[in-house]
Each structure stands twice: as structure tokens, then as C-alpha cells.
Amino acid sequence: MSTHAAVKPVESDRMKAEARLGQRLVAPAIILMLVVTAFPMLRALYLSLFNYSLTAPDDREFVGLSNYLVALTDPLLWKTTGVTVLYMVVTVAFELVIGFAFAMVMHRVIFARGVIRTSILIPYGIITVVSGFAWQFAFSYTNGFVNGWLPFVGQDFNWFGETTPAVIAIMVSEIWKTTPFMSLLLLAGLAQVSEDMIEAAKVDGATWWQRLWRVILPNMKAAIMVAVLFRALDAYRIFDNIFVMTAGAQNTESISFLTYRQTIEQFQIGMGSALSVLLFLSVLLIAFLIVKIFRVNLADARQEG
User: Where residue 174 falls among pLDDT bands split at 50, 70, 90?
Assistant: First the structure.
């Protein structure tokens, strides 16, 4: 029986030099981030080991991992996690499709390119709280315009009276606000796709869909991964729109909002710190899974051997 040893890709001198240069360039930013974030992170980890409430600051009691055990065995945390994952998956999926369409328009348009790009990016420049209030007004059944635009729901339909429509309203506000960011990242990826490859596909008789699926998207894999990664992590930590539009009512709260309620509203610093640590760990897990799913080879993305 013959066996074939896996051939490891050989790194060129250019790749090694670029790797060293990249490490030197990101080192100051990483050091600064560690200096700024290390103390709050370590402080949260430390406080999560105590039964500590601001209403009784002198009664701090070391409980070890008890806060984590209580949180992980509480159905509320898992229910909130499910809602948070739903926010993340649906909004990122819609933003990816719509953002790619916007990126194609911005990439191909010739007339008034600056005006069109600026118009598409306007929502992202609006403060999230302001955007949340605007969409709360839009979905209001008393004076909003959404019910008027959607006659099948009825003018008196209360979007914030039940869980499903309230979640949809929050998702719509999130998609409207952050799709321009997704389109901006995808536009950068489109700029890296070789026009010669597209023209060669045209000469070979490939249709527009074939060029899209076999030429454009494969060569944008790295940019798509970055866009999905950034937006997924941001969507998983959604807070502002929920706080403004529903204040967590109708089972719309996310993990970030649950952490806020425990820490700020109920003054449970120990449990709130434990939830923040769990949130941080889950964000790392999501980032790891996204990178593994895409499996982007940066050398291939640069078309190097």
C-alpha cells in the first residue's frame, strides 16, 4: 500500500518578508489595544469570581466559578443566545447580498460615481441611537409610515406588541444602518478582481452568472471573509437598536442587553462580569469558526505559488 505525504506549501522570500513587515506594522496597534483593554478585561474576569452587588458593596463574597455555573444553567441565557444568533445570521446574510449589489453598482457606475457612493454610505454615518429612534418612529402604529407602505399588515398593526414583528423591526433597522459598511468592504474586494480574467471568461462564452460564481466570487473570498467576520462580530454584540426600540421587551434582548440589565439595572456586578466574559469567549469562538469555514489562503488570494 502506497501512501502520499502531504506536500507543504513552500513560502517564498517575498511571503516571509511580507509576514515580518505585517507583524511590525500591527505590533504598535496590538500593544496599544492590550494596554487599553487588558485592565478592563482582567478586572471583569476578577469580579466574575465574586458574589458582588453595588447595593451591598461590603458583602463581597468569593464564589469561584459559581456565577458561570448559574449563568450557563439558566434557560434565559440560552434563549437570549438563540435570539442573538438569529440577529447575527439574518442581518449578516441580508447585508451580504444587498451590500454586494451596492458594491457592484459603485464599482461599475461611471456617471456621478462620487454622488452615488456617498448616497449609499450615508446610513452608516448616522449615529446608531439616532437611527434606532428614527426606525422606532417609522414602525409606530400611531404616526409611522411603515404600516402605510405595507397595507397587508393594517394601519393599526403594532410592530412592538409581539416578539416576531419586534425582532423583524430591529433587524430592518440594523440592516439599513450597516449594509453600507458591508458594501464598502466588498467594494475593496471587487477592486482586486482582475478585469483580464473577466474578459477572458466573456471570450470563452461565460454568462454573467457564470462569471459571477466562477470568477468574481472565488477571487473575492478573502474580502468576503473579512466583511462577514467584521459584521458577524458586530451583529452578535447588538445593543443600541434593542435599547432604543424595545428596551428588551417582547423577548428581543441580546446577550449584550442581558449583561447590561444584570450590571447596570440590577447592580449585580459579579454576574454581569461573568456574562461579559462569556460574551467575549463566544465572540472569539464565532471568529474562529468563520475563519475556519472560509479557509482563505492569503497566498492564493495574492496568486502566489
Answer: very high
> Confidence class of residue 9 from pLDDT cuts 50, 70 and 90?
low
* Residue 28 in grid coordinates: 504598535
Three-state secondary structure readout of the chain: CCCCCCCCCCCCHHHHHHHHHHHHHHHHHHHHHHHHHHHHHHHHHHHCCEECECCCHHHCEECCCHHHHHHHCCHHHHHHHHHHHHHHHHHHHHHHHHHHHHHHHHHHCCCCHHHHHHHHHHHHHCCHHHHHHHHHHHCCCCCCCHHHHCCCCCCCCCCCCCHHHHHHHHHHHHHHHHHHHHHHHHHHHHCCCCHHHHHHHHHCCCCHHHHHHHHHHHHCHHHHHHHHHHHHHHHHCCCHHHHHHCCCCCCCCCHHHHHHHHHHHCCEHHHHHHHHHHHHHHHHHHHHHHHHHHCCCHHHHCCCC
pTM assigned to the model: 0.84
pLDDT of residue 195: 83
Query: What are the tens digits of pLDDT across the range 49-90?
Result: 999 888 887 788 888 899 999 999 999 999 999 999 999 999
The CATH homologous superfamily for domain 56-301 is MetI-like (1.10.3720.10)
Q: Cell numbers at residue 161, please?
A: 406588541
Spans of all domains in the chain: 56-301
